[in-house]
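Readers of this paper often ask what the protein records in our data store actually look like. Such a record has a labelled line for the sequence and another for the backbone structure tokens. Nothing more is needed to write down the fold, since each code stands for a local backbone conformation. The remainder of this section carries one protein's record, kept here as part of the documentation.
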Amino acid sequence: MNPASRTSTAATVVLVPGLRDHVADHWQTHLAARLPGSVTVPPLTAGRLSRAAQVAALDAVVAAAPGPVVLVAHSAGVHTTVHWAVTHDRPVRGALLATPPDFDSPLPDGHPDPATLREHGWLPVVRTRLPFPSIVASSSDDPLARRTGRIAALAADWGSRLVDLGPVGHLNPASGHGPWPQALRLLGELDGATFTRREAVQ
């Protein structure tokens, strides 16, 4: 779509972290610093493993936005986003969904097991087409998504365009990744009007 044909209202960028505390060198932290007016869903101090609590926290941030939003989710935040998307109806321009974990398979030590994920509402994984444009950015060596083809299948179920980032681990500092410059380009592809406007005013 030609950016000029979009509404003139710039979207608010909402960053949706996974089940983590604030991490200064995480790419979402760097991205938030580069995007004035963006909002990050704050980490929960209680009930962090609760899918319902995570979805409610995301909805509170989106509801407070002055207009449409663009969602930028990472890790379990991707699953928060898709659970939210199929149960809420708010204006969304698009979503960048980076390295979603494969919750249908056992995760590495230190992460919730399938029984815990089910108990807290994360399973079954949403397989419904999302009601807005989306891009799934996948890693070829993500330790949280080791089964071949799993993330591609999720992207297809969600109606998302799949972008293979190559061997970037889980796209986090533990994998040796801080800033992720490609995020801005992918966001521009989702909502060129908003990001062209941001570049013009910075």
Observations:
- Residues 1-7 have pLDDT under 50 and may be disordered.
- Residues 33-130+156-180 form one domain.
